[in-house]
Amino acid sequence: MRVLPLSEYTHRTGRLNLASRLPDCFVRPDLGPKMYNAYGSALYPSKGTTNLHLDISDAVNVMMYVGIPKDGNHEEHIKEAYRAIDEANCDILTRRRVREKNELPGALWHIYTARDADKIRDLLNKVAIERGARLEPHHDPIHDQSWYLDGHLRERLYTEYGVEGYTIVQCLGDSVFIPAGAPHQVRNLHNCIKVAEDFVSPENVSHCFHMTQEFRELSDTHSNHEDKLQIKNIIYHAIKDSLSVLNLEVAKTGSEEKNAKTTDLNNGEPPDNKPAVVNN
């Protein structure tokens, strides 16, 4: 926890982590740390480790361990991991990093902006209908976490909707920041252990509130139906604390101005606070 980057956001007591504004009398939301362990799937390009979904809060994800299976074809795993990185249209610096610097790639991330979530939903619903599926009410293709966007679906998303996400290769020791409301998916190229910590940033608190409204539309049995973040309480107490700080500053400034005026009336000398004597 001490070495998490951007500590003012990611630490539980960080000044820019609005979740820290909840009073002690509240049962605080479980923001982590959370550990994710999964085998690599470099040999299965259409399968994801974590399907496409979005979170109600911001998160930082740290890669703690990367390992290649020793009970199979070692060279084949490495070869397929490089192929996955190339086919994901990663930038040239990333491809050079994993090859020339011999850094072991752990996970392949695809992160999309929050404003593209509805376009992604439209594509997934369209594909589901094409495959003969029935769209159930009060369900959501992203919140249900039932899809992984493979190369073919990512190509359709770009061709038909003009949506292109950010492709990130996470190596050992790397931290990945996922904004609240941003659809994302993960595919472990090798065996990975990752640790994540959630936080609520002022920049994305509006997305947190919007996600809460979306979750209310899901079925009562859905895992995301309940507002576990208590975002309304967080917003209320963050605003209350901000107003308290501003009021104290205004009072302090007013007191300094009053003292300055009193000093001027006494010809530059501070008042002696003694009662005046009046002779009749």
UniProtKB/TrEMBL annotation:
<feature type="domain" description="JmjC">
    <location>
        <begin position="11"/>
        <end position="216"/>
    </location>
</feature>
<protein>
    <recommendedName>
        <fullName>JmjC domain-containing protein</fullName>
    </recommendedName>
</protein>
<dbReference type="InterPro" id="IPR003347">
    <property type="entry name" value="JmjC_dom"/>
</dbReference>
<keyword id="KW-0539">Nucleus</keyword>
<keyword id="KW-0479">Metal-binding</keyword>
<dbReference type="InterPro" id="IPR045109">
    <property type="entry name" value="LSDs-like"/>
</dbReference>
<feature type="region of interest" description="Disordered">
    <location>
        <begin position="255"/>
        <end position="280"/>
    </location>
</feature>
<dbReference type="Pfam" id="PF02373">
    <property type="entry name" value="JmjC"/>
</dbReference>
